[in-house]
Design brief:
The chain is α/β, with parallel strands linked by helices and about 325 residues long. The chain has 11 helices and 10 strands. Belongs to the UPF0065 (bug) family.
């Protein structure tokens, strides 16, 4: 394990230290299974994380835990379902920056607010890439911008729907460089990558590990990463900060929420089990292989992250007067 990931792992273990010993699960009102709602399609990396958490949670609390995929509308369908569910501990929500933080800051008429959910456990975070199909013929961020200005045509990029992290990043990217960008919504990243290779998209902002095989095959060129430091798995790829665009540095997180009003004893029991699962060797290996970084912690850690989002993403949204009314 690299020194960088070792430092991240140490911080994760310290954040989750108060949850090191999993509590016994308090009695639930229902004898039925616990369901984790995943706002992404089956078969993708987020689905894999959800199923890994479900397995670990089931093992720790001794109850059947299922995964139900509800993709679409950048997580709004899934979030609406969870917000309307009973707060009895039988429904959990695998969510993140886009489906919860960004949606509630960018949209006025949602059937839920950030307060419709209780934070349960922070799990991990990650960064995006700025990538292009090799066939586009550009090999650096500067060349991409020069290409866009020379052709006068907008750069099309894939998103997981209006208000998703990638959608918002494309809007910020467009305003920063003064080039026109056109978002194209997909239910999952693999579908967008098919179109990237097929010439229907010029740019992708997916996570680096989503592009591993394409980068190895030479069909996709990763121009930059959006983190504040280089990723040890991609040592030759510069960060946007290194290239002089530090205001384009962003990361995204993934966590577990529940319908508001979840009993405190259930919340703490779930947090303990989830933190223990995230810090397990199998899950840490999945994170490493997926280009994500452990950040496990309980409700307080997740609540602090939500506040950070309001301060950072919220400032970007207000500064750029970004609203989504679709």
């Amino acid at each position: 394990m690299t020194r960088y990931l070792s430092r991240r792992l140490t911080l994760s273990l310290l954040a989750g230290a108060s949850f090191a010993m999993t509590q016994g699960l308090p009695a639930l009102a229902s004898d039925g299974p616990i369901t984790i709602i995943v706002p992404y399609a089956a078969g993708g990396i987020n689905d894999a994380f959800g199923r890994k958490i479900a397995d670990g949670l089931s093992r720790e609390i001794g109850r059947t835990v299922l995964v139900e995929n509800k993709p679409g509308a950048n997580g709004i369908l899934a979030a609406t379902h969870v917000a309307r569910a009973k707060n009895d501990g039988t429904t959990l929500f695998l969510t993140g920056t886009g489906p919860l933080s960004l949606n509630t800051m960018l949209r006025d008429n949602l059937p839920f607010t950030a307060e419709s959910f209780d934070p349960v456990a922070m799990m991990f975070d990650g960064v995006l890439t700025i990538s292009v199909p090799t066939a586009l013929g550009v090999s650096s961020l500067e060349e991409l911008i020069a290409h866009a200005r020379k052709t006068g045509r907008p750069l099309r990029y894939g998103t997981q729907g209006p208000g998703s992290v990638m959608d918002l990043y494309g809007r910020i990217f467009s305003q920063h460089f003064g080039v026109e960008m056109v978002p194209v919504a997909y239910k999952n990243n693999p579908s967008s990558l098919v179109d990237l290779l097929g010439g229907q998209l010029e740019v992708s902002f997916v996570s680096p590990m989503s592009l591993t095989e394409y980068a190895k095959a030479g069909t996709v060129k990763i121009l930059a990463l959006t983190g504040s430091a280089r990723d040890p798995k991609w040592p030759d790829i510069p960060t946007v900060g290194e290239l002089g665009h530090s205001n384009l540095e962003i990361s995204y997180w993934t966590a577990i929420h529940a319908p508001a009003g979840l009993p405190e004893d259930l919340k703490q029991a779930y947090a303990a089990a989830i933190v223990k699962t995230v810090n397990s060797p199998d899950f840490l290996e999945l994170l490493s292989n997926s280009g994500q970084y452990p950040k496990a912690g309980g409700p307080e850690v997740l609540a602090a992250q939500m506040q950070t989002d309001r301060e950072t993403w919220g400032a970007i949204i207000e500064k750029n007067n970004l609203r989504i009314r679709e």
